[in-house]
Amino acid sequence: MLFIKDKIVFGMAGVRVISACIEFTAAMLMLKYGRVETALKINSLLALVGPSVLIIVTSLGLVGLAGKVSPAGMITIILGVSLIFIGINKL
User: Fold this and answer.
1) Is position 2 within any domain?
2) 44: Cα within 13 Å, side-chain hemisphere
3) Low-confidence ranges of the chain (pLDDT < 50)
4) Strand positions, DSSP E, 7-64
């Protein structure tokens, strides 16, 4: 039996499980339709899911760390996440 020690960790894992189910369903749909055009459309919809999951899981993690990390540490984490998004947008 799985014992849940932290609700934040459970929430983060839950969002990732939902994301994995969406990804798996998309892969099965790509195989079902078997056309490059349809697979590309499905893949483009997944482009919306990935960043949303990243933002949600990161937000949950930051909420969980809010009382445990120093203000300087929290600023460093937020700057790191911001740099990830800046780097992604520069492509």
Assistant:
1) no
2) 6
3) none
4) none
Asked if residue 63 lies in contact with residue 8, where contact means CB atoms within 8 angstroms, the answer is yes
- Measured CA to CA, the distance from residue 12 to residue 76 in angstroms comes to 21
Cα–Cα distance for residue pair 29/20, rounded to 1 Å: 14
**Domain membership of residue 77 as a residue range:** 7-89
Whole-angstrom CA distances from 87 to 40, 57, 76, 82 are 24, 19, 16, 9
pTM over 0.90: no
Domain count, the chain: 1
The whole-angstrom separation of Cα 16 and Cα 9 is: 11
Q: Give the model confidence (pLDDT) of 52-76 as tens digits.
A: 898 899 889 888 888 788 888 888 9
